[in-house]
Amino acid sequence: MILSKGARSTITFTQRAYIHSRSGAQHYGKGALGTLSLLGAASAMTLAALYHNSPALNEAVKNDDKQRFTQTKLHFTAIDPSDNRPFEILSQKAINAIMRSGEVAYKFAQPIKNVSGVYVNSLRSNEPIEDHYSVDTIGSTKLIAGVYDGHIGPQCSILIKRKIPIYVAQHLEKLPMTKSIEKVMGALSSAFEELDSHIQQRFIDIFPKDISKLSAGDIRSAVTSRPDQAETRRIIEEAIHGSCASVAYVDGDDVYTANTGDSRSVVVSVDKDGKWHGRRLVDEQTPARPAWRKFMESQHPASETNGLIKRNRVFGLIAVGGAFGDIMYKVPVEYQTAVLPNIPADIYRRFARYHHRIIANYRTPPYLYSKPIVTHHKLEENDRFIVVASDGLWWYTGKEDEHSPDGDQAVADILSKWKDDESDELPNPSTHLMKHAFILRRRYDLPDSAPFDESVEISKLLTKQPSRGFRDDITIVVIQLGKEGKSMTDPGRYGEIIEGQEVDVKCPKLYNPSKKGWW
Length: 519
Fold this sequence. Notes:
Domain PPM-type phosphatase: 115-481
Largest sheet: 8 strands, mixed
GO molecular function: [pyruvate dehydrogenase (acetyl-transferring)]-phosphatase activity
CATH topology of the largest domain: Phosphatase 2c, domain 1
Shape: globular
Organism: Umbelopsis ramanniana AG
Protein name: PPM-type phosphatase domain-containing protein
């Protein structure tokens, strides 16, 4: 083995060799095997190959009954010198298996104009995962796909996943047969706002109207006296938890995108010279974006400006400037001290540690909005993909941060290398995009002259714990544009094949006018 001179960094590693038998796993050999210096930029032997020289395992197999063993697994733990945290070295096969575990592809009963395929992948970091997505059809020939990035907990994003396609379809159904682009954009916006207003009102309706006359015990009793306690908890959680939403609606040659929060939609195209381009279809709602910060400040008196946005976060707390749920940023002032501390204690604990910081700045609500930014894009012949993804992806593609426009171009560059044929080890483009975004982020973070082993760097991102300290949930929907109705006859190739369902416009909203009640 030949290594160039000049030590760059040092990784201390331990080895654990497990041999799995029919009677259970036996553990052979544990302890520090030594210190490995990564020297220079090149090596004739990869780091992973060094770890697979295992005297402990070889001796165990030699001295035991080899007929008993059905599987051999090696677990190697290394220490990342950048933060002194351990991580597990994974083989390329193991990496691909983890990254493919959430992938699916959709097929549809009828062709959708300009849509060749829809591919999804979702990788969990939170437990349970807070990202969710939906892929449906409207009127059987139009596509609606969305990504919903939850926070505080998953209940709001789960609700949005189920309900936003219904609300959008019902608002579109009200439009005349000949409808303008502006009317469609308005329908999308109204659907978002109506759904969030229903989420808020269901919460408000749990409590008596004049809360100023109620004690803390009265507030708690308003919750505990309701006959269906499971439903009551769900309504409260769906309002307290929050969710961003980025939705793409494809109707023939027209693509409409609606965005609340900091998820993103990008169109990827290739020009006549073969150059690939990524362009953001809709801006993010985040105080980190100067234009949106200015908008947020304009909604409140000048006297609040100094305390409104701190460290590019609302009150220094939440990084999004738009969301469903998050009712603690939307309720009337008196609810902050009278109601919120008296909801079920386990739910309140999710935000209790910083609730006092909301109260200290809370003057003229709401401070978060569900009204989306809505745009229209006329599909062109050179458009190849629409990518809708949570901010967990964009953090990896943006060189400066998750809001950088170079992240849009990075997605185009990555997808330009995707090959929809048997030669691609990751045939689902959403998985291809996720993996190569990981690689790109690690290359951004390391000096150009540093040694780089893709398997090692991805292993760090996949196995360091707690993972939420290193990556967020990631959900990606890739809409492949082109000839309608690709045949997907090999389910194992793209992941699980799911039949896309048409939205049932007769499905009830959260509020049922005929019963004058809340679902």
